[in-house]
Design brief:
It is a single chain. The chain is about 40% helix and about 10% strand. By secondary structure, the protein is mainly α. The protein folds into three domains: about 190 residues, no CATH class; about 80 residues, Alpha-Beta Plaits, CATH 3.30.70.20; about 110 residues, no CATH class. A three-stranded antiparallel beta sheet has the order 1-2-3. The relative contact order is 0.09.
């Protein structure tokens, strides 16, 4: 067997993992629409939605409902892994798998022995705790801390402190716990292993070809799934914890393993076991994890009806917009004025010192750059005659001078002074950052914030 034959599926997995990252990178930086978003929520060809079903389950546990598009995306992902094998995600998609595989390879090369033992069932408890915490805290708990999401974001959008968690997992797998993260702790892998119990594509096993050399066991990231009597009786590895990574196919000298459909399996007749033989996962452990998650969903489910929106008088004055946010999001597209500069009139400022807003057309004036700014033709002090022309104030010609704060001060950097120039300061050249064009067909949402001058009268103001 050549080296290429012994590593063909490993190379295909790396091609898949790196290829998916490249597609995400191209979507984010080159605006190609083949694959956009991230591993939690993405779109294929800017049309087909894909959603992480475990993330969706956590969000539903918080008591929030999701759009039909997100739910359809989660269903599509579930259907795919029901066909391809639940933990195929771990072996063929997850970028963190490349890190843990590298740690495992170094561990074998350096002869580092096991220093710590953690039951593989722990990840199911972590999964249940993630769902329960999501319900209790009101946020998708694992998504906040997921090293998978951190690694993916930093590979796509730039390196940051998230790599520290990835480095921690690498060191854990290398020195303390063999396959520690993927094999014992990752709740996402636990979730997909439950999906994998029902999947169609399996690692088939022909007991008549096997000579029990045992080469497949040490190379397997989940060696507990290779129980020869059980998989021989089924004709395939039925445990959902199998990654479908195909390492056993590569190292088996007699070709006893292969990819098959579970419906085409050929069980061995040398044993009385059946396909329903219980795999080495404690049934009560899985049941307890799911019961914990379901209880959290029931207890924290959102109340129905108007009573759920009733105010609580806790002695704190809280004011809300007196408007339907759903209706606000359905407003028609904004229509801007077409009057020329100088003919559009002015708009009263919302408060003293507020930046004046733009009522005239800006159609031929954008984009504003440091070298091209039509606003200066009318508003530069040299071109104005009185305050009604809104001359650019002196502050816009001053560049702040920054100085490092002293130890113990709240601000690391502070403004030490200003330097005045003849041109508009570089931090001020883009006028529309503060002076915004005003749409004519958008109503200002009504608020319940009392005006300072009308508090005693209890009147409302806009």
């Amino acid at each position: 067997m050549t080296w290429l034959q012994g590593h063909q599926y490993l190379l295909l997995r790396r091609l898949s993992q790196v290829g998916i990252l490249v597609l995400f990178w191209l979507g984010a930086h080159q605006h190609l629409g083949w694959l956009t978003g991230n591993l939690s929520s993405s779109r294929v060809l800017r049309t087909i939605p894909l959603s992480d079903p475990f993330a969706v389950l956590q969000i539903l546990a918080t008591g929030r409902w999701l759009s039909a598009t997100v739910l359809v995306g989660a269903l599509l992902v579930l259907l795919f892994y029901l066909l391809a094998g639940g933990r195929s995600f771990c072996a063929w998609v997850c970028p963190l798998n490349m890190v843990t595989d590298l740690a495992g390879w170094l561990r074998r090369r350096l002869g580092i022995g096991g220093q710590l033992r953690v039951a593989r069932e722990v990840r199911f408890w972590v999964m249940g705790m993630a769902i329960a915490l999501s319900a209790l805290l009101g946020v998708a708990a694992f998504e906040w801390l997921s090293p998978i999401a951190m690694l993916h974001r930093e590979l796509i959008f730039g390196v940051g402190f998230g790599l520290l968690s990835v480095a921690g997992i690498f060191l854990l797998d290398l020195f303390l716990l063999r396959h520690g993260w993927c094999g014992s702790l990752c709740p996402l892998g636990a979730f997909y292993s439950l999906v994998g119990r029902l999947s169609i594509l399996r690692i088939g096993f022909d007991a008549s070809r096997c000579d029990h050399c045992g080469d497949c066991v040490p190379i397997c990231p989940e060696p507990q799934v290779i129980r020869f009597d059980e998989i021989g009786a089924r004709g395939f590895i039925g445990d959902g914890q199998c990654l479908n990574c195909a390492r056993c196919l590569e190292v088996c000298p007699r070709g006893a393993f292969s990819f098959i459909s579970r419906f085409n399996a050929r069980p061995s007749r040398t044993t009385g076991a059946t396909e329903e033989t219980e795999v080495p996962m404690e049934r009560n452990t899985k049941s307890a994890a799911w019961i914990l998650a379901l209880l959290a969903l029931v207890l924290m489910a959102p109340s129905e009806g108007e009573e759920a929106l009733a105010e609580v008088d806790d002695g704190v004055d809280v004011y809300f917009r007196d408007a339907d946010l759903g209706a606000m999001s359905a407003q028609a597209l904004e229509k801007y004025g077409d009057a020329d500069p100088g003919d559009a009139g002015t708009l009263d400022r919302s408060f003293e010192g507020a930046p004046p807003q733009i009522l005239h057309t800006v159609e031929d004036m954008l984009p504003i750059t440091s070298g091209s700014n039509d606003c200066l033709d009318c508003h530069h002090p040299e071109n104005t005659t009185d305050e009604e022309d809104y001359p650019i104030p002196e502050s816009h010609f001053q560049e702040p001078l920054m100085a490092m704060g002293q130890p113990g001060e709240a601000m690391v950097w502070k403004v030490q002074g200003y330097k005045k120039g003849d041109d508009v300061a570089g931090s001020r050249f883009n006028c529309t950052m503060c002076h915004t064009p005003q749409a004519l067909n958008v109503k200002t949402p009504r608020t319940l914030f009392p005006d300072e001058n009308q508090k005693d009268a209890g009147e409302e103001s806009r």
